[in-house]
C-alpha cells in the first residue's frame, strides 16, 4: 500500500538536505553558479526544446551526484575519522563519479554552444 502521508512528511527533510548542500559545500556552490550561467545563456541564445531537455537533465545530474558525494563524505567522516585506505577509496571514487558526470555535462554544453556560435559566425561572414 502506498503511504502518501509518509512521502509528504519526507519532503521537508529532503529540502533541508538541499539547503545544507548549497550552504556547506563549496563544489555545490560552484556547480550551482555554472547552472545559473548556462540557464541565462540559454535564454539569451535561445535554446531549442531538445537543447533545454539535454541541459536540464545533465545539470540536475551534476547537482544530484554532488549531493550523493556529500552524503558519502559525511558517512565516511562519521565511520572513519582517522585515515583508512577504504575511507580514501570511498571518498575518491565518489568524487570521481561527480567529475565523470561533469565531463559529460561540459561536452553536452560545448556541443550546444558550438552549434549556436558557429551558426552566428557563419551568418555574419
Ligand atoms: N578518513 C580518511 N581516510 C583516508 N583518506 C581520507 C580520509 N578523509 C579524507 N581523505 C582523503 O583526503 C581527500 C580530501 O578529503 P577531505 O575530507 O579533505 O575533503 P572532501 O572529503 O573531498 O570534502 P570537502 O568537500 O568537505 O572538502 C579525500 O578525497 C581522500 O583522498
TrEMBL record:
What are the binding positions for a divalent metal cation in this chain? 25, 73
GO BP annotations, alphabetical order: phospholipid biosynthetic process
- Record-listed ATP binding positions: 25, 73, 91-92
Q: Where is the active site?
A: 66 (proton acceptor)
| Cofactors required | Mg(2+)
One GO MF term on file is: metal ion binding
The cross-references to InterPro entries, in alphabetical order and at most eight, read: DAGK (IPR000829), UDPK (IPR033717)
Q: Which UniProt keywords apply?
A: ATP-binding, Kinase, Magnesium, Membrane, Metal-binding, Nucleotide-binding, Transferase, Transmembrane, Transmembrane helix
Give the matching PROSITE patterns: DAGK_PROKAR (PS01069)
Q: Where does substrate bind?
A: 66
Query: Its GO CC terms?
Result: membrane
Q: Which residues cross the membrane?
A: 30-47, 93-117
- Give the co-factor note: Mn(2+), Zn(2+), Cd(2+) and Co(2+) support activity to lesser extents.
Q: What is this protein called?
A: Undecaprenol kinase/diacylglycerol kinase (ATP)
